[in-house]
# Entry
Amino acid sequence: MSDEQGESRRGGRGFAPDFLTELFRNPLDPGYADAAAARAKAGRAARPGWSVGPVSVVIVALLGFLFAVAYRQTMADEPGRAQARSGLVAQIQQRQGETDALSLRADALREEVNREREAALGGSHAARLRNLEAATGLGKVRGDGVVVRLADAPPGQQPLSGANVGPPQVLYSDLQAVANDLWGAGAEAIAINGQRLTATSTIRNAGQAILVDFRPVTGPYEVSAIGPDALRERYEGSGSALTMRRVAQDTGLSFGVHDADDLTLPAAPEPQLRYAEPAVSASPSGGDESPGSGSSPSPSGGGR
# Structure
């Protein structure tokens, strides 16, 4: 027996004098064959006596069962959730309709009260009252002015890299700044989405909502102002206009200013006035106490 034949029978590789014959007879390199044999040997040594395959099958079956139970439970609860959601939507729509109807009724009653009051007051007094109501925001006004429009950036819009200008949404502070600069530019009457501003108005946020005098407003936001002919030119040079243009450029937020003819701004709701009254402190005996009696000063007295 030759050396080459003995090597071939022990699993070694025999070599043929012709290269093509050798290539077709032994296409796998010896190194790959040795590695495969080593992995097979290690796999047999790692199995202690029962296969891992059944355990994996059991685990997969349990997970599938749990997912099936969760899916069935979710689908069983879905009609109840859908019914509750539709009920809430119906209630919101009903309450909104009632609120709109009450608002229209309030406006009609306010107009009726104004007519009766003007009829009772007569000429000059009625005109003076109308002027005072227009100045304080309690009367409807008409005139030329400007409209400042703000809107959130489209969904998915990302701010420019490195731009420290806040989120791409309109903030309550933006509306505050716009309204203040419009007053500073000479505006005589301002309304935000139809909500008339007065000397006691507030613009704030509650969660994700913006409230104007505790009434929610949603975007796009329109700040309408009635004022002199130079109102737009004055406002364009204000701090809020310059800031909002930069914010719009960096975040995609929408901001614009345009002239508007024959604007009509509604009257603000009647304010709830509160009056301060001096505190009255009564002595235990009911009589006046002399300055030297040693009694403690009352809170209204300052205590100095």
Q: What stands out?
A: The mean pLDDT is 77. The chain has eight helices and eight strands. The longest strand covers residues 254-265. Strands lie at 141-151, 189-192, 195-196, 203-206, 209-212, 215-217, 221-226, 254-265.
